[in-house]
Specification:
globular; 53% helix; two-stranded antiparallel ribbon; 14 helices
Length: 305
């Protein structure tokens, strides 16, 4: 159980066997996350619970897409150290490991996209690219050599080591909110347990599998505008669910751009919110693709599957 709380307790030697097999002992919390959602059948649902579920999803999805991905992985903009930590903490509440682990593996993915060296290449199978890749021993450690720039911040290293703490605190906050609603707004028809199940567990499960779908679905189904030498696709449906991450072929062509939807009709809510943060002075030096290069290098809009 100590291994679940402190990632420093997980030592994986180079001579360890079965590195590519699921580490069942360590992933028990991940399995429980799925099973606890079934209690939603007992607690029932209310309009209040659904609203909290959606808000919880959207806030944390923004932290994942804008900061875990566009900031920590690709340095698409600059920000203050406090803002960096706050959104790193918020992203960690999404229960997708720490920001350094997440960004380091993603950088590795871009270097080896869809090759044998890619940890979640779709060529290794749909479920491997979706989630099996991070459930094995090989990919549990943080690839420190890929994330030396942000590893200098001790607060980020702390989040990476104790990445279970922010989700626990977030779930506790949701539960306290449920107690407040149950006691002071009984007409809402929501209980503390219902709010917890929908506001944290179901919301987190939705957030997780939608995020994983960028590695699996968006490397199999959608359209290709650019030749990126990999299987990345633009997927409108995923772009809606991920606040803009679904324009994945665009992203693989211009990975450092904070804007993944190139044209006005390509919905990219994360970018719009980043523009708002820029106007507020919270971020600056926001990188964008060169439209002239876009027009020069796009080759097709054919669908692929």
């Amino acid at each position: 159980m100590k291994n679940w709380l402190d990632n420093a307790e997980n030592h994986i030697g180079s001579q360890s066997s079965n590195l590519d097999q699921v580490d069942w002992g360590r992933v028990i919390p991940f399995i429980l996350l799925h099973l606890v959602c079934l209690f939603g059948l007992i607690t029932g649902v209310s309009t209040t619970a659904i609203i909290i579920c959606i808000v919880s999803y959207l806030i944390r999805m923004f932290a994942i897409t804008a900061f875990y991905h566009r900031y920590f992985s690709h340095k698409s903009f600059k920000t203050h150290r406090l803002t960096q930590f706050l959104f790193a903490f918020l992203g960690t509440t999404a229960t997708q490991r720490g920001p350094l682990w997440w960004a380091a593996h993603h950088r590795h993915h871009h270097i080896h996209s869809d090759t044998e060296a890619d940890s979640h290449s779709p060529k290794a199978g749909f479920w491997n690219s979706h989630m099996l890749w991070f459930l094995n021993k090989r990919n549990f450690p943080t690839k420190w050599q890929r994330i030396k720039d942000f590893a200098q911040y001790k607060e980020l290293r702390w989040l990476d080591r104790f990445d279970i703490i922010p989700p626990i605190l977030f779930a506790t906050m949701i539960f306290i909110l449920g107690i407040f609603i149950e006691n002071y707004f009984p007409e809402a028809g929501a209980s503390r347990w219902q709010i917890l199940i929908w506001g944290y567990f179901i919301s987190t499960l939705m957030l997780a599998h939608v995020t994983y779908s960028i590695n699996s679905v968006a490397h199999r189904w959608g359209s290709k505008r650019f030749d990126t030498h990999d299987e990345s696709r633009n997927n409108f449906f995923l772009a809606i669910l991920t606040l803009g991450e679904g324009w994945h072929n665009n992203h693989h062509k211009f990975p450092s751009s904070a804007r993944q939807g190139i044209y006005w009709w390509e919905f990219d809510l994360s970018y719009y919110l980043l523009c708002l943060m820029k106007a507020m002075g919270l971020i600056w030096d926001v990188k964008k693709h060169d439209l002239a290069k876009v027009n020069q290098e796009q080759v097709t809009e054919n669908s692929a599957s």
